[in-house]
Amino acid sequence: MSVHITKADGSVEYFKIEKLRRSLRRAGAAPTEVNEIVDQIIAELYDGMQTQEIYRRAFMLLREKELPTAARYSLRRALFNIGPTGFPFELLLGRLFTAEGYQVRTGIIINGKCAEHEIDVAAFKETHSFVGEAKFHARPGIKTDLQVSLYSYARLLDLRDRRICEDDICSIKDFWLITNTKFTSAAERYGECVGLNLLSWDYPKHNNLHDRLQRYRLYPITVLQSLTHSQAKILIDNGIIVCQDLLDNPQILRRLHLQTKKHERIMSEANELIKGHSASHM
């Protein structure tokens, strides 16, 4: 289909039907739903249409059919909304690496050979350890660039062989640069060349940030359609970062002074999102 669309960063590319189909399937939409939504989007498509407009339309169509699927489809936008600071993103990464079997520390200070470093994420387990820099962006279209990769590698050189715990495995040898958006191609090339571990929304192609959050069902509470932005912020400020936190600590909703029906609707949505679909649909 020879229709140009405008991406969040202002660049232009051809609309790719399969890309839309894949994003809908990854959210757990049934084949019939995928076909219906794709057909509707194609019918409304026009040259120069913005990707955000396509997303909003697909999201609304999904929301009319099945709320949990719409929530999973909105995961990328939900990550933007956990801001505006990067601190909740660091906590989310802590939840992710904990799910992967690591012991995790966030926001620590380590003295390197030549400088003191504030470390966003430090993680270790019996077979591996690493430290990481979390680059959070509150809107799409902003990429983590070459300068950040250069800076991260310089930090690795200064931190190499310092320790993040007492075990033998805890000597720093790996540095992760993690962003909720994307890397520029130059940042990726440099990171690969010098041995940085890069993780973004869509990088690497497999086992990227999106894949890993889906695998462990680590959905930020900002995916919940039953919560307003201000209500989500109150919960985040109280350490409720992902929907599972809400299921583990439902009494926290009392701080929002909600009516019973609203309370039940939020918990029902969170529960259905976490438990309603098998991992094979992710």
Tell me the total number of β-strands. 10
Kindly report how far apart the N and C termini lie: 27 Å
The CATH topology of the largest domain turns out to be Trna Endonuclease, Chain: A, domain 1
Give the class from helix and strand content and strand pairing.
alpha/beta
> What is the CATH first-level class name of the largest domain?
Alpha Beta
Binned, the helix content reads 40-55%
What is the mean pLDDT?
Answer: 92
Radius of gyration: 20 Å
Number of helices: 12
| Strand percent estimate | 15-25%
In the sheet with the most strands, the strands line up as: 4-5-6-8-10
Total number of domains: 3
> What would you say the CATH architecture of the largest domain is?
3-Layer(aba) Sandwich
State the low-pLDDT regions, or none: 278-282
**What's the main sheet like?**
5 strands, mixed
Morphology call: globular
Question: How do the SSEs run, as a string of H and E?
Answer: EEHHEHHHHEEEEHEEHEHHHH
In short:
This protein has about 280 residues and is of the alpha/beta class.
Would you spell out the secondary-structure blueprint of this structure?
Blueprint: E1 4-6, E2 12-14, H1 17-26, H2 31-44, E3 49-50, H3 51-65, H4 67-73, H5 75-80, H6 87-99, E4 103-111, E5 116-125, E6 128-135, E7 143-144, H7 146-159, E8 175-179, E9 182-183, H8 185-194, E10 197-199, H9 209-215, H10 229-237, H11 243-248, H12 260-275
Parallel strand pairs: 1-3, 6-8, 7-9, 8-10
Antiparallel strand pairs: 1-2, 4-5, 5-6
Helix pairs in contact: 1-2, 2-3, 3-4, 4-12, 7-8
